[in-house]
Fold N-succinylornithine carbamoyltransferase.
Amino acid sequence: MKKFTSVQDVADLNGLVKEALHLKENPYQYKKLGENKTLGLIFLNPSLRTRLSTQKAALNLGMNVMVMNLDKEGWALETQDGAVMNGTTVEHIKEAAAVMGQYCDILGIRSFPKLQNREEDYSEDLLQQFISYSKAPIVSLESATRHPLQSLADLLTINENSPAGKRPKVVLTWAPHVKAIPQCVANSFAEWMGQADVDLVITHPEGYELSEEFTAGATVTTDQQEALERADFVYVKNWSSYQDYGKVLTDGKGWMLTDEKLEATHNAKVMHCLPVRRNVELSDEILDGACSLVLEQANNRTYAAQAVLKQMLESL
Ligand code: CP
């Protein structure tokens, strides 16, 4: 594996899931594989889970890890080709990515969308420039449009908790939030579920349709209660509008998931990528209840990252 930016970079999805679940049982089996290899984790945005789980995954494989908060600790980065750098930017991504690629055998990069210009965000310009200018394989730690390590961890969690012998019904439901949130997690979850052995239903208020690029094969409805009928998994996530790009169109009153709404499901397990705003996105009763899988998802982040890093180390 030379890059991991979306499900399209995975040649054998079932194989990768099996690998991750095997690593969960045997986390130190490949401790020699990463000896004298370095993972660089570059953050332009905050993180708890991605930072620590990917670091732990690399340590389990025997790698060294360097972490840099590039937005706070690095030089102000220029990304425009041909820019005359007589303003506030100090270093061009051409040099920065190339240099980091010299120090590291694998690079991870987190860069959120700005939610101001859809074309710019959806071009994934920064991620693509890192891929172009760094010779090291690149792992997305969440980009402008996707969060593939989260989606792989979510798929592991669904596999582990699926009712035996049944193709599970998985519902991705929009939830309220206090501010505009990127579409990355929802896009990515929809895209990965589209490749998995599940029936996916997406529900959201009008105006929150995701790009069809990610939702192929899913049923989409604005009727949340109908969507929840006989669901086995309910994935809760807020996102801002794709059409009216980056806008919050509603206060989302009535869209927060409750135990009462879950009665229509097939004893559904509830998922969220975290961090979660309690009693805004998801109620205390659900997060603290037996149906919540949020901590299992977070735990699986380590083994998702470990499977990806292992395949990259094997192809160095
Ligand atoms: N789910 C997730 O990516 O968490 P962090 O933003 O804390 O890394």
